Amino acid sequence: MRLTFVLLLLAGIVFACEAPVEFEQPQPVNQRDLNKIPKRLRGVYISTKDSSYLIIDGKKMISRMEVRFEGHKDSIDLDLDSIGLGINKKNIVMMEKDNAKFTFQLKGDLVFGTYLHSDTIFEISTRHKIRKFKGHYFLNYQHSIDNWKVNKLSLEKSLLTISKISFPKDLENLKEITEVEEVRSDKGKVMAYKLDPTRAELKKLLDRNFKKINSYQKIGGASSVSE
C-alpha cells in the first residue's frame, strides 16, 4: 500500500466535513445542558462502514482510526533514508503530526507501517453542549456567535447513529417547516443555510430532515472507558 493512499484516508475521517446548515442557537431551545454524557452512551464503538472507532466517556468523544500497511521500501512515497536519524536500533521510524502518528519498521527491503489518528471530536464545554429531546441527544458545536453546528445522536440497543441536516436537496421541504435564512458571500454565492426552529419545528425536522451520516456498533461498555 502506498503511503499517499494512507494519507488520503485522513480526509475521510468522520466529522471532518462542516455542515452547510447552521443554527442560531444550540438545540433544542430552552432545554437544559447536560453536565455529563449519559452512561448509556458511554463505551467503545466501531464504525459500520470503515475501520474507525468512537470512544465515549463522561465528558468527551474521541474518534480513532488505525490502518496497517506494508510494501517494498521503494514503493513507499517517503524517503526513509533522508530521515535516518529517526531510525532506532530496531529499525523503527516514528512521526507525529496533527493528531496522527506514523510508525514504520524496516525489515530488509520491506516496510511495515501503522497509521493511527486520534481526535477529540466533542468535549463538554461552553462551546460544546449536549442536550436531550424526544429520546435523542443533540451535540451542539459553536463556531461563532449565533452559529452552531448540530448533530443528533440516537442509540437503539447497541447501534449508535449520528445524523444531521445536510445541504437540503429539497429546500422547499425545509422551508415548509421553519424559516430559512440564506448566508451569502460577498459575491452573492449561497454559502450556508441558517435555521432558528422552535421546539415544535425541531420535532418536525427530526422526522423529515435529519439524515444518517454514520453509525457505530457498540463493542465495549462504559466500564472499559475511564472518566
How would you characterize this protein structure?
The chain has 227 residues and is mostly beta strands. The longest helix is centred in the C-terminal third of the chain and has 10 residues, at 199-208. It contains three helices and 14 strands. The protein has a domain at 18-42 and 126-224. The chain has helices spanning 3-8, 171-175, 199-208; strands spanning 21-23, 43-47, 52-56, 60-72, 92-97, 100-107, 110-123, 128-133, 136-144, 147-156, 159-164, 180-184, 190-195, 211-220. The chain is globular and about 65 Å long. An eleven-stranded antiparallel beta sheet has the order 5-6-7-4-3-2-14-11-10-9-8, with no helix packed on it. Strands 1-13-12 form a three-stranded mixed beta sheet, with no helix packed on it. Residues 1-16 form the signal peptide. Keywords: Signal.
Total strands: the figure is 14
What structural category arises from helix and sheet content?
mainly beta
Mean pLDDT: 82
Series of H and E elements: HEEEEEEEEEEEHEEHE
Keywords: Signal
Signal peptide: 1-16
What is the fold's blueprint, element by element?
Blueprint: H1 3-8, E1 21-23, E2 43-47, E3 52-56, E4 60-72, E5 92-97, E6 100-107, E7 110-123, E8 128-133, E9 136-144, E10 147-156, E11 159-164, H2 171-175, E12 180-184, E13 190-195, H3 199-208, E14 211-220
Parallel strand pairs: 1-13
Antiparallel strand pairs: 2-3, 2-14, 3-4, 4-7, 5-6, 6-7, 8-9, 9-10, 10-11, 11-14, 12-13
